[in-house]
Structure formats: C-alpha cells, structure tokens
Write a structure and sequence with these properties.
Elements: H1 5-17, H2 19-50, H3 52-72, H4 78-87, H5 99-127, H6 129-133, H7 136-160
C-alpha cells in the first residue's frame, strides 16, 4: 500500500498518457511481480534467507539501485524483489509442507492488493491530468519529489542494512 517505484512510475505516466496507459502499466508491473513470486516459490527465497553475505549483497545492491532510480526516474521493482525474497518466505510454515504452493498463494494475495492500490493511484493521477498539463513546473515537481523519495530509503538501507 506504500507508494514505491512502481506507483511513482504509474503516477508519472498517468498525467502524460492517460488512464489506459496507467492501468496497462499496473498490469505489467503485476505480471512482473508474480514472476518474482514464482522464483521465490521455486527456491530462490530460502537461498537468500539462509545466506547472510547474499542477503547483505542484495540489500546493498537494492539500496544503490533505489538511489539510482531517484536520479534516473526509471521503473524497477526492487521493493517487490526484497519483499518476495526476504519477507514472503518467512510467512510460510515449512513444517506444513507444500512450500512452493504456499508461497505462490501468498504472492497471489500480494498481487491482488498491489494492483488495486496502484490502479487507485493511477486513476487519481490521470484525473489530475488537466491540472498538470496547465503547468510543466507541476509535472517536473512530481518527478523531483518522486526521485527524492527513492534516494532517501536507498541511503537509509545502505546505512542501516535494513
């Protein structure tokens, strides 16, 4: 529910290209996120979860990437990668078996909630399209604020490891 890179991408495209493009962006992001869920379900998650050096490297790479996104204003879903690889597997009781199925089901819940939230953001931003079109400075400000919201968490993750 917390806006991240994908929401900023959707919000950025909505005023410039309209509702259809914003919702298509949400659909593409949702499909990409479920590819990550499937990778975790098939074994990537436990490897990352058990390897402190790999988890640390992934965390630092993600921090650097968030800072990069803050400057480049591109689209990526590092928050989803971390969620799927590091957080999602912790909610699966391995003793109950069928771990891949359980991860896939939890990932499906994530992929129902995220598009609903992202679509809401996209629809609100596309409704504001006329307001943005009247002032290029407003559209530029959204991009600048979006960039700063990515740099802050990137620096925080790099400094704290969390």
């Amino acid at each position: 529910m917390v806006p991240g890179p994908s929401v900023l991408f959707v919000i950025g495209r909505a005023p410039a290209h309209g509702r259809r493009t914003a919702l298509t962006s949400v659909a593409g992001n949702t499909l990409g996120a479920y590819v990550l869920v499937a990778a975790v379900a098939l074994g990537v998650g436990p490897v990352v979860e058990r390897s402190v050096p790999l988890f640390t490297a992934l965390t630092l790479a993600g921090a650097a990437y968030l800072v990069h996104l803050g400057f480049a204003a591109g689209v990526a879903h590092f928050k989803t990668m971390v969620f799927c690889a590091a957080v999602l597997p912790r909610f699966v009781d391995r003793a109950q078996g069928r771990v891949p199925l359980r991860v896939l089901l939890l990932g499906l819940v994530f992929n129902v909630i995220a598009p609903a939230s992202d679509s809401t953001w996209g629809l609100v931003a596309s409704a504001a399209r006329g307001w943005f079109a009247r002032s290029p400075r407003r559209l530029s400000a959204v991009g600048g604020i979006g960039g700063l919201t990515l740099i802050g968490p990137g620096v925080t993750v790099a400094a704290t490891g969390r």
